[in-house]
Structure formats: C-alpha cells, structure tokens
Amino acid sequence: PVVILISGSGPQNRDEELLGHKPFLILSDYLTKNGIAVLRYDDRGVEKSTGNFNAATSADFATDVESAIAYLKTRKEINKKKIGLIGHSEGGLIAPMVASKSKEVAFIVLLAGPGIPGNELLLLQKELIERAMGVSEAEIKEGLESNAKLFDVVIQSVDIQKLKVDLTTKLNEMFANNPSTEIPNGMTKEQFIAMQVDQIASPWMEYFIKYNPKLALEKVKCPVLALNGEKDLQVPPKENLAAIKNALHKGGNKNVTTKELPNLNHLFQECETGAPAEYGTIEQTFAPIALEEIKNWIKLQTK
Predict the structure, then answer these.
(1) What are the two backbone dihedrals, phi and then psi, of residue 40, each rounded to the nearest 5 degrees?
(2) pLDDT by residue (tens digit) across 141-167?
C-alpha cells in the first residue's frame, strides 16, 4: 500500500518544512518503517518542481495529486488497489476533491482538514488566534465584522480585476467610517489598502474563500479518517470534524472515523495554547499518538 502526502497552504517542499520542522519527513519515515510506501513531492514552483505557485488554486493542486496517482500506477512495487491520500490542512481539502472524482483512491486521511466554507473558516481562525494572543474582545469583534464584509465582496465577485476595484472601494469606505484604523509604520493609507487587496484578490485566496468542502466530501465513497488536534486554532476541531462527518454521511459513506486528539495543535504537536506563535518553539514535530492513529487505521483499511 502507498500514500501520497499533500501539504498545507503556502509553498512547501516535500518535507512540508516550516519553522524548523519537517512534519512530512517524520510521517513518511514512520509509515515506511511500518510497511506503507510514501510519495512526497515539492509543491509546484518550489525547489525541484516547476510551475507557478502564485497563479494556482486548490483545484490546480488537486491536478498535481492526480499526476502523482498516475505516476504510482507505473510502479511495479505498488499495489494499485491500495493507493491512499494523506492531506494536511489545505491538503485535507484537496484529498476529498481528488477522491470524489477518482475510483483509484482507496482511502483518505484528513489531518486538520477543513469541513466548513473558506470564509467561515478564516473568520473562526482569526477569532481564536487573536483571543489566544490576548487581543481585546472589542477589537476581535470589529476585525471580524470588517473581514466578513470583505469576504462578502469576494463571494459575489465573478471577475478578479473588478474584485480588486470593489475591494479598494470597500476598504476606502471602511477607513472613512473608522479613521482611527492603524496603518503599519512607513506605509501610506493607499499602500496599505493595495497590500490588503493583493492578499485577498489572489487566485488562491479568492478560490479558498468561496469554496465549500462539503460539495466534494458528499461525493467521497472511499474510507475516510479525519483527525484534529484539540487545541488546533487554525482548523478548529469541533466545527470542522462535525461538518466532515455530516457531509460524508449525507453522501452515504459508512466507513468514516473522526477523532479529536487531546492537547495537539494544528501541526499535531503537543502544545500549551495551540497558538501558531508556539509552533517554532516546540521541540516535537509530530506527536507519536497521531502517527500511531494514522498507521493503525491505514493497516486496517489495507489488510
């Protein structure tokens, strides 16, 4: 049996390297030692992979996974009936996209995969991370209201150039209504607005804000394991695991396991608060309990 590892958001190499950690290196080493083959690749446009990362959306990354499946089918040592996908974070959004369209995917593992629409996820994430950072409730509420308005502009848009114009108008309006808004040092208001517009109106972000994972999950017929850390503030466990489970059941999938692992963060490290600021300060890269859950479940599916 073999798994393809699908990284989280942002340009990553085959180790999913970030903040001094290499989660996919640890995971692949562990699975390989337990008789499960692993295929990893650098994201498009990263290290040895060609292509333009900045022009791509989650849907494009799904085609990269399809290429990986096609490649595995040429390998003699692989059981073609036991090809699985393991997706972390955004990878947990991409795995169901691929599995919903391909009979060749035997099982999928979603590690901190989103189950709720992108706009809702980003708002929830912002709220929880800011609260963990000690931001005042009034500021959190104000930030959420502003972002919700901007996301609505994105959801209604059909053309990225017009979206940039609409977002600029909206942000100028927000500044006019709230003149005390802080602008980073050394930036003019215009530069600050342009920077925010570029972040929100990127192909990836526009797609992510509009995307509802439920649509693909309802069509996934293969076995699914969805794991989340209890202290994950980026893809909060309660809301996302429930949404994943509901969508799979609605589609008639009976082989679904969802688990919230105590005391783990978004990277599956044992942690204090779960805040992203901790990721780089924690020595552990991948908690043994999470590795074991993944291995045991895959063994069960591929007996």
Answers:
(1) -120, 155
(2) 999 999 999 999 999 998 889 999 999
Q: What is residue 88's three-state secondary structure?
A: strand
Residues of the chain with pLDDT under 70: none
DSSP letter for each residue of 7-52:
--SS---TT--BTTB-HHHHHHHHHHHTT-EEE--PPTTSTT--S-
> What is the rounded radius of gyration, in angstroms, for the C-alpha atoms of the chain?
20
Tokens representing 54? 């900045």
Helix or strand (DSSP H, E) at 190:
helix 189-200
Checking phi first, is residue 19 left (phi over 0); if not, alpha (psi -120 to 50) or beta? Answer: left
Q: Tell me whether strands 83-88 and 256-261 are parallel, antiparallel or unpaired.
A: unpaired
185, burial (CB in 10 Å: exposed 0-12, middle 13-18, buried 19+): exposed
Model pLDDT for residues 174-193, shown as the tens digit of each residue: 888 887 778 888 888 889 99
Question: 182 by DSSP, 3-state: which?
Answer: coil
Q: What is the pLDDT of residue 34?
A: 97
Three state DSSP letters for 215-283? HHHCCCCCCEEEEEECCCCCCCHHHHHHHHHHHHHHCCCCCEEEEEECCECCCCCECCCCCHHHHHHCC
